[in-house]
Amino acid sequence: MKPGRLLAASVFAFGTVYLALTFLIPEPSGGYAAVGPRAFPIMIGIGLIGCSIWIGLGKVQSSPVRELQVNWQLFAFSAVTFFTYILLLDSIGYVLATVGFITLESRLLGSRSWLRNLTVGCVITALVYAIFSALLGIPLPGV
Q: Which of 59, 72, 75, 81 would suit a FRET pair with 136, their CA atoms being 20 to 30 Å apart?
C-alpha cells in the first residue's frame, strides 16, 4: 500500500471514530442554545474525513523531506511569552494580555514593525472578543 493511501486510510478511520464519538456528547436540555457542544467536534470530524478523501484521491503532492533546523532560543522565548500570557490572563484581563501576547509573538516570529504588530494585536483581539461576547455569549476574562 502506498504511503499516501495508508495515511488517507488512517485519517479516515480516525475521523470516522472521532465523528461517531461526538454524538456521545450530551446536549443540554431546554434547547436554548443555538450552537450546542457537538457543533465544533462534528465540524472537525467532517473535516478529517474530507481531508482523508482529498489525500486518498492524490490531490496532495508530496515533496522531498528535508531536515528542519530548530531555533531553540526562539522556541524558549515563545514558550516564556505564552506561559506569561496564561499567568497574566486573569489578573490583567483578556484584552490587555492578548494584545501584548500577539504583539510580542509577532516580533519573535520576524515582524520588525512594532506599530504593525500592535495594530494586528488590537484587531485580532477585538475580533475574537466580539465573536465570543456578542455572537456566542461567552464572557472572556476581564480586568
A: 81
